[in-house]
Amino acid sequence: MAKAELERQSLGTKLILFNEVMLVLILVIISVIISIGSPKFYSTTNILNILRDSSMAIIAGIGMTMLLITGEVDLSIGSLVAFVGVVTMDITNKTGNFLLGFLAGVGLGALVGLVNGLVRTKLKVSSLIGTIAMMMVLRGGVYLYSLAAVQNYHQLNSFYMFGNGYVGILPVPILVMAGLYIIFLFVINRSVIGRRLYATGGNAIAAQISGIKVDRLKILTFMANSMFAAIAGIILVSRMNSGQPNSGTGFELTVIAGVILGGTSLGGGEGTLVGTLIGVLILRIINNGIIILRMNQDWQIVIAGVVIILAVFIDNKRKVARSRIITT
Fold first, then answer.
1. CATH assignment at residue 223
2. How many separate domains does the chain show?
3. Bigger pLDDT: 157 vs 9
């Protein structure tokens, strides 16, 4: 992209192109507005609560970002969160070992991701339709597995600490999120895997011709996405201290809204974890503002839907702006 050509673009086009700058400005403006209505917004306790609440969506957003970069999507992660929570609690109760419960939950996530990947690559079912079907299977399956909530019978400190504990002043979920985020920030931006993800999403046929095993890469990405969602589900069940079959409802929409708002394209080939982080934080700060300003909490769902529409609109505008720069 030539510098002279970029300078000729309008301010609006530049803001659309420099998505993360725009997102930071939005984040600051929203924070200032909420703080005017409630000064306690900037309290240490509230900030840590926002980050802890954001950690699950950010963890799941890491996987969703990678998946969307390849041009695929997964709408089953909300139901998976519920199933993983019930299985993790059940196995932990039966064995008295949180590690086994954790491995069972993550293993279930890997299995679901494998099935989603195979349905997409081998049966050639679109990921939108395939994962909607998986969403229904998982939501029905978790009720068949347990008709009621699976209560905590073990009282293990390790289980409680995973979702509720602190290391110093930092909640454990934030540290888990930060560790995964840093690792996969490197994977996506600096590794061969990251380059292959972008190449596959940009042009799968060209990627295949260049030697990338596209189907295998997509299957592994589906698996990684579901495993990230599983970790988020384990954090959730630890925080609730109960495996609820109806938990995770709408979780997939929050994650997808945050990722798309962060600049990851539904068409594949574009996206950053930095954008995902800011996008999820914007949504969580809005939700937090709704609570501390004592507004009707149903606005959280309405806002998530509006954000998805706006994010897709901005994504389309960004594509048009970039295509004009390339052709000029």
1. 1.10.3470
2. 1
3. 157
